Amino acid sequence: MLKHVRNNIYRLRWSRNYSILSPVTKSPFTVLGIETSCDDTGVAIVNSDRQIISEAIHLQQQLHEPYGGVVPNLAMSSHQQHLPLVIREALDKANMDIARDIDVVAVTRGPGLPACLGNGLSAGKALAAALRKPLIGVHHMEAHALTARLTQPTPVPFPFLTLLISGGHTLILVAHGVNHYTQLGTTVDDSIGEAYDKISRLLKLPWLKGRGGGPGAALERVAEKGDPKKYKVPIPMTKDKHRKEAMDLSFSGLKTSISTLIKNHDLDLDDEIVKRDLASVFQKTAITHLTDKLELAFRWCREKDIILTALVVSGGVASNKSIRSSLESLATERYNIPLICPPPHLCTDNGVMVAWAGVERFRIGLVDEYIIDHLPRWPITTLGS
Ligand code: KG4
Ligand code: ZN
Prior knowledge:
It is built from 14 helices and 10 strands. The chain has helices at residues 2-21, 61-64, 72-94, 98-101, 114-131, 140-151, 192-202, 215-223, 241-245, 252-264, 272-303, 321-335, 344-347, 351-363, and strands at 30-35, 41-47, 52-58, 104-110, 135-139, 160-165, 170-177, 180-186, 311-314, 339-340. The strands form 2 sheets. It has a 5-stranded mixed β-sheet, with helices on both faces. Zinc ion binds at residues 140, 144, 166, 315-316, 349. Homodimer.
């Protein structure tokens, strides 16, 4: 018994040492990435030469659409059911043998839905431990941010300003390096993705199907044909000086403004033109709010003498074309730096971003223990501390 305990302690120490030393002995090295933080089961294989070797994804839209949003228990059991074969598919597409060809296993550790994270993390840990491969627990939002360094012809150099807009987060950060971020702003209530999803539900829009689909994408599609000036709603965080000068964001008031508008004008939500105009007014106001706050962030960086190389925008909502074009004008015309967004299918959750974050972290020796737990709430600013 005592011998057994000693052996375990030895293993633990070994893994702790390993996390510090982790020599990169092979070039290029290959990472298998697993993403299960929300509703899509994504797996991919990426190497340190910035090649996406294969990708597989199982979407859950059909499962959640009848409920109007992601149902955590259903999402969890779907990951449980599909993850093994999504892993298998990624390996088959790459024509790779996991024991022979994969050097590192990376898996989303947080933030996200607890049971969903637990599923992917258990699988990743079990694979890594059984195969004696290094394990990397990835921060989902860092993975969104770093994707831009994979998808450009040459990696975007640090430091860059990044706006991460997803279903769970709205973050304005300065990315100084891998594992090193300064948070300038975050939402004080709903995320922008939640706002898109809620307005989409309010307008009873059917979800767009397939990769890059869902309620937010449906709202974008309808908004394209509407008149953004048809109704006036207040731009969030502009009421008083303190809120106007803060780099934080807010989206719950905008949702309420749209609901109030519908009530006060007795608008008919079965009228397609009314829906288009409301969607368009919502989207225009949300974009104005984003650009207002990014302006402040640009100015903050200037005051601190941070020479930014780019504005990187990523996360599911960054697949939105209107948001991209407004932010492109802001970055290029006003601040003379490029706007860099991953292609839309790599803005929404996927395994590639996790595998690539694994590459970036492994390269600088950041490896985790096999005993790590999931972190459903995990501020990105705690990375590196
Ligand atoms: O990053 P992501 O795939 O998952 C999370 O990490 O949350 O982001 C999902 C969010 C959802 O709210 C979805 O409706 C929204 O991104 N989204 C969009 C678009 N595509 C996805 N919102 C606006 N326009 C889009 N084209
Ligand atoms: Zn995401």
